[in-house]
Amino acid sequence: MSVDARLERAAARPVIVPDTITVDRGKVFIGHVRRGLPFAGDLRPARTAGHADGQGRRGAGVRVHQPPVLPARRRIRRLRHHPARPRRPGRLDDRSEVFCGRDQLVSSRFQFVEDHRGAFGVKRLCRILAVSRSGFYRWLAGASARAGRARADAELAEHINRIHQESDGTYGVPRVTAELKDSGRRVNHKRVERVMCKFQIVGLHLRKKVRTTIPEPSATPVPDLLQRDFAAQEPNTKYVGDITYLPIGNGQFLYLATVLDLCSKRLTGWSIGGHMRTSLVTDALRAAARARGGDGLRGAIFHSDNGAQYVSKEFAQVCSELGVTRSRGAVGTSADNAAAESLNATMKRETLQGRKRWNGASEARLAVFRWATRYNTRRRHSRLGQISPITYEQRSTTLATAA
């Protein structure tokens, strides 16, 4: 059959696309929202014979008013001009397109057939609703399986919700999946994503800034030893640090200085204050040295931005005292210190959880202390294979000892 003949044949077929279904006084009304083609089929059961043999059949007494068909030439012209145009649900040139995976419209049609089959019969309902009887019976046979999947999803949602609450509402799909696998539940991340979406369990994402990096024009140049390579082979060899603001209301802020190990991602040292003096960053660096014990940070590299605190003579003296080699990125770009920026953004996202500020300085301090403790000891880190920084360091030490 030629292309033109096939197009003529396709154009001659009427297209019924029910988008809305209502029942009123024994009639089914199907509205065509997208095309604006009204359609009504009177499905009131027939009481008189519809055939010469006097035997009533299910099809008797059905009065169907078909929508007007577009002129054949116009449809052929449209098909020729747009031969590869993708078809969209609800705008069908082939009825088989209705039967796509998990189509909610198809499921609602099948449910409608199930609800009214006793009054009107499956055959007539399926014809009017443009679905196949075989598809309806397959849908009917799968009812128990669907119910079982719904129960399993509800049970999984309970576990996900518990994990989500234990993480203070911060975990998304990857960390929830890792937590479930650790607890012995074999589950795919796609299923976790689907269930979280269905039950509206959402991790946290976030927002905006106050300027905390104020360069010092007279600073002695220090080379960039990292060159944006934020990886380290062993703990206690490379660190990054930064200052971030903590909003506490009434236009006031606390400031947090951090020291992050680039190998284990451990928040090794930190300090909070109501000021941005150099002592804020030196206190954080000394705290990191105490946390490491022994030789502390001797021989390690500490990388920062060009804020006045990090380029000061006082900070240089403390680094020399602790045996730390200084490194600084270029002026005016946060990408050279992206690892520290990312840590600060994560901390505020997971502690504020969408709020604009804490209700006071004490609440902010407690929130940061609680988060830092959980971050180091329990929070799963995606770059570490979904384990915590302390666990990663312990495993690294065990492997090094065994070697």
Q: What can you tell me about this protein's structure?
A:
The protein has 403 residues and is of the alpha+beta class. It contains 13 helices and nine strands. α1 crosses α2 and α3 runs antiparallel to α4. The radius of gyration is 34 Å and the shape is elongated. The termini are far apart. About 16% of the residues have low confidence.
Put the structure in a nutshell.
With 403 residues, the chain is an alpha+beta fold. The protein has helices at 3-12, 72-81, 104-120, 122-129, 133-141, 143-166, 173-182, 189-198, 278-292, 313-322, 338-352, 361-377, 389-402; strands at residues 20-24, 27-31, 39-42, 63-64, 238-249, 252-261, 267-273, 301-304, 325-328.
Record keyword descriptors for this entry.
five-stranded mixed β-sheet, 9 strands, 403 residues, 13 helices, single chain, four-stranded antiparallel β-sheet, 42% helix, alpha+beta
End-to-end distance = 74 Å
Give me the side-by-side strand order of the main sheet: 7-6-5-8-9
Write down the overall geometry.
elongated
Low-confidence stretches: 14-19, 32-70, 83-103
Q: Give the overall pLDDT as a whole number.
A: 76
The total of helices stands at: 13
Name the helicity range: 40-55%
Strand-pairing-aware structural class? alpha+beta
Order of helices and strands: HEEEEHHHHHHHEEEHEHEHHH
Largest sheet features: 5 strands, mixed
Count of β-strands: 9
β-sheet strand percentage: 5-15%
Cα-based radius of gyration, to the nearest Å: 34 Å
